[in-house]
Amino acid sequence: MQDLLRSTWDEPRPHHPPARVWRDWVLVGLLVPTAVLEGALRPDLPWLNLSLIAVIGLVPTLLWRRTRPLPMVVIAFGTGGALTLLTGGDHTEPYTMVYHLILVYALVRWGSGREVVIGLAIVLGSACLSMVLRPTGLADVIGGLAVLFSAIALGAALRYRAGMRTRELDQVKLVERERLARDLHDTVAHHVSAIAIRAQAGLATAVSQPTAAADALRVIEAEASRALVEMRAMVRVLRRNEPVDLAPSPRIADLEQLVSRGRTGPSVEVGISGDIDDLHPSVDTAIYRLAQESVTNARRHARHATRIEVHVAADDRSVHLRVSDDGDTGGLRLTAAPGYGLIGMFERVDLLGGTCEAGPDPERGWIVTATLPRTGSPA
Hints:
alpha+beta, 379 residues
């Protein structure tokens, strides 16, 4: 229990809380005239003018509820408690003051652990003060607490859901970094193997050469062999005890494997133009992986699609990929967030210094485009 309380207290704030958006200004703009209208329709409320001033004056706290949730709760509920003390509980809160529940929700959704604990203590203290100074029936007390805890539960649920989504995205990116590390290992291992072979060849022909040359070749061979051992050990750690995949990394030249042969679903057409012979191996593999993921997504999600086109164009500096389909862009596909596969590909493209975009075609279907430098620039 103590560990749970400590972890709750030390919980950091969610990253990048959204700033004020147009919906916030609309909400503020609607609440002010609503409060004035309520005052005009309920002129018999005790301390009417003071209550309206408090309600309207506290509306701007909604504009900072995400970036400064605790100060806004302190201001709103502290003012409410002071108003209760000032009137001796002899005032009725306008219905418009229900927007204070938005502040409670924002506190739980966007505040740090200690901010949530302190803020909720202030909220409950203000509620208890109001109950003590103003006689309230049991049914009203239960109903009010139920509404309050509903706002708290909603904020906690959405916070937990967002946290799970963030952790899943981080895991996808980590996996993609591991895959990139494996591909980089293959490249480095290839060059180190070449060094070792050259060193062995030098040793074989060093009989007629000075002794220093033979010694240098022995050092080269030893260092190359040691580097290979270290690289294999690093890959075993990155694989997290997964079995070693000895198959060579796929390349752009292997895109023909994506062509549909004897299977149902949309046909896949692959076109390659330009020189792809001297690409950096990581770029070569990244283009294939991105095309593979895009084709897989199109086969799964492109409704009524009959054709998927994959085109790779290489120039002197970059390699360009375009994957498109002729499916229906309506429905869920327009609004759904990118799948984890594409997010991983975006991460890989970014690590290699390229750009990648995915979205609906203005005419029909879905398009994924990517541009990577020929040489790559892994982070």
